[in-house]
Every structure is written in C-alpha cells, then in structure tokens.
Design goal:
By secondary structure, the chain is mainly alpha-helical. It has 13 helices and five strands. The protein has two domains: 212 residues, HUPs (Rossmann fold, 3-Layer(aba) Sandwich); 92 residues, Tyrosyl-Transfer RNA Synthetase, CATH 1.10.240.10. Helix 4 crosses helix 13. The protein binds tryptophanyl-5'AMP.
Length: 342
C-alpha cells in the first residue's frame, strides 16, 4: 500500500464516517477536508456509517440527530451532494449483504490482529458485541461493493484498509476471478493523526470523556478559545526545527494542527512559529481555528434548521449508491454460485 495521492481522474473513491457524537477536528483534517479536495477529480461516494455506529450502544434519538448532523457537516465543509453520492449506509442494503459474504471470507486470525477492536473492547472482551468484532468486514464491504479503488482516511484506519485488501485478494483467489480491485488508502497531509488537546500521546476521538480533548466542528469561537487555552503544553518556547519537536508530543500536535489549518507543511509551520511562547502561539492557533471552523459551524446550523432537506439529499445519494452497489452484489452472488432469485 502506498498511502499516496492517487493519479488524477482514475478510479473511484469511497469513504465513511460514523454518526456517533460530534464531528471533531480530527475528522475534518484527517478525512473530510481531503474528501472536499478529491471530489474535483474523482467519482466519490461518501457514506454515513450508521450500521458501524451500533457496534457500540447508541441512544436512538441521538443516532438520528447525529446522522443528519454529519450530513450537514460534510455539506457545510464543502462536499457537493449533487456531484457525489452522500448517503446513509443502512439505506443501501448491499453493504450488509456483502458484509455477510465477507464474514465467510475473512479469517478469525485476521480479525484477532485488529488493534481497534482491542482498544474499543477494552479489558472486557467477552462483553463486546459480535458486530464490533466483524466491524472491519463491513468496512471492507462498504468499499468493495462499489469496487472503489481509493479510500481517503486518517492514519487510524490503515489497518482496516489492509484487511479490506486481504479480503478482496482472498475472494478473487478463492473464486479465480478479478472481481475486486485492491483499494489504496489515501492518507496525506499533517492532519492524518490529530491528537487529544489534553494528552498529545492519545488520538483525538469522539469517545474521549473530556470535551476539552477535542475541537468540535460545532464549537463556537468562545468554545474554541477556551479549549485551546486549556490545551496541555510544556514550559519551553517553540523549537526552530522539526527535530526540536522530538519528545514534545503536545507541541508537535498543536503545530501539526496549525500546519493543517493553514495549508502548510509541518516544516513551514515550525519555521513560522520558531521561538514563540505558547501563549502567543495559542492566540494565533485560536484565530486560525475560528477562521476555518466558524463558517462551517454557521452553515451546519443553517442546514440543521431544515432536516427534511437533509433527508432529501440523503435519499438522492442512496439512489445513486444503490444503482452502483446492487449489480456488484449480483455479480458476487453469481460468482459464489447462489441460485438467481428470480
Ligand atoms: P471514524 O468515524 O472514526 O472517523 C472518520 C474519519 O476521520 C478520521 N479520523 C481522524 N483523522 C485524524 N486524526 C484523528 N484524531 C481522527 N479521528 C478520526 C478517520 O481516520 C476517518 O477517516 N471505520 C471508520 C468509518 C468507515 C469507513 C468505511 C472509512 C466505515 N466504513 C469505509 C472508510 C471506508 C471510522 O470509524 O471512522
């Protein structure tokens, strides 16, 4: 897997996001912002993965609200739902149907190696849902039911992508076909691994109990300022080279965030902020984060005022997605030897 940027105008992109809790800066910088850039050159499908969300308990009313909110966030960030398919996973039954086939292709040994399952299941593995365990098989189905060739994600999804490739390869080998392409991850830029604002060694995540660990796409200017002010730092001024970030995880994280928000490389951001005290740098970071997230936040609120319109957009997206996914599923069923249904 190269993890590089695909050559323009070849292939099809699929990516997904869970409607669990608030969208945060990691989702934006690691995924959504790249999707916005890639949509110019590629046929894209963007999926709100509600089936994945219920692998851990979700309050039904929150799940409904979050699903619309994620759609609003993606549109507000610049995804064009007319040019792409923006849809909800449970509206396209072929995802679940192909996932079952993949449950029979993937090996237990492969799933046992998935670090995200170990992290999410925690110490009490026996109490985790079976869905959480086979989660990566459904993710492979999300991608391969469209024969997607490229998958733009944050760094944390890399292992799942490797599994999707293994599944595609094994299916092709077992049945002697070239049905599935081996999807390439697209992991790029300084925002591919945004860390917690409280602990620079932990990923920024929706499930962190501390609200101060993340900037949400719904945060207003005051909330952003408060969270950046409270972000963990160290006593030294910012270094003048990337090498000087060695062992300074919090400084590295804030500079990475700043680099991603200002469309610079980490090297450029470090050179720009060299020698600054954290207090000065945090003021600059706040101003930048508010400038980027503020307009998205305002547009999200506006869109959330018309849930029926969001539902319409998602329905049109599901129609497009179903039109691609259904024939691929039929091709898979035929290859396996299932008797045609009618
Ligand atoms: P999810 O919902 O956790 O995250 C959505 C996207 O945001 C990225 N991301 C991050 N990037 C940088 N820093 C962070 N701290 C950070 N946190 C999250 C994720 O890498 C992801 O790209 N399993 C997936 C959803 C999924 C999917 C798919 C993705 C289901 N099917 C098919 C791609 C293709 C997940 O839980 O993402």
């Amino acid at each position: 897997m190269s993890g590089s940027t695909p050559p323009a105008t070849t292939g099809r992109i699929l990516s997904g996001i869970q409607p669990t809790g608030n969208l945060h800066l990691g989702n934006y910088l690691g995924a959504i912002r790249n999707w916005v850039a890639l949509q110019k050159d590629f046929e894209c499908l963007f999926c709100i993965v509600d089936l994945h969300a219920i692998t851990v308990w979700q309050d039904p009313a929150d799940l409904t609200r979050s699903t619309r909110e994620v759609a609003a966030g993606m549109i507000a960030a610049g995804i064009d739902p007319a040019a792409n398919a923006l849809f909800v996973q449970s509206h396209v039954p072929a995802h679940s149907q192909l996932a079952w086939v993949f449950n029979c292709v993937a090996r237990l040994g492969w799933l046992n190696r998935m670090t995200q399952f170990k992290d999410k299941a925690g110490k009490n593995r026996e109490a985790a849902s079976a869905g959480l365990y086979v989660y990566p098989n459904l993710m492979a189905a999300d991608i391969l039911v469209y024969k997607a060739t490229h998958v733009p994600v944050g760094e944390d999804q890399k292992q799942h992508l490797e599994l999707a490739r293994d599944i595609a390869q094994k299916f092709n080998n077992d049945y002697g076909v070239e049905l599935f392409p081996l999807p390439e991850p697209v992991i790029r830029g300084p925002g591919t691994r945004v860390m917690s604002l409280r602990d620079g060694s932990k990923k920024m995540s929706k499930s962190d109990p501390s609200e101060f660990s993340r900037l949400n796409m719904t945060d207003d200017a005051d909330a952003i300022a408060g969270k950046v002010r409270k972000a963990t730092t160290d006593p030294n001024p910012l270094p003048d080279s990337v090498a000087g970030l060695e062992g300074r995880v919090e400084a590295a994280n804030l500079l990475n965030i700043y680099a991603a928000l200002t469309d610079q490389t980490l090297e450029q951001a470090v050179a720009e902020q060299a020698g600054q005290q954290f207090s000065q740098f945090k003021a600059k970071l706040t101003e930048t984060a508010v400038a980027v997230l503020g307009p998205i936040n305002a547009e999200m609120k506006r869109l959330m005022g018309d849930p029926a319109e969001i539902d319409q957009v998602l329905k049109r997206g599901a129609d497009k997605a179903n039109a691609i996914a259904r024939p691929v599923l039929q091709e898979v069923y035929k290859t396996i030897g299932f008797l045609p249904s009618a």
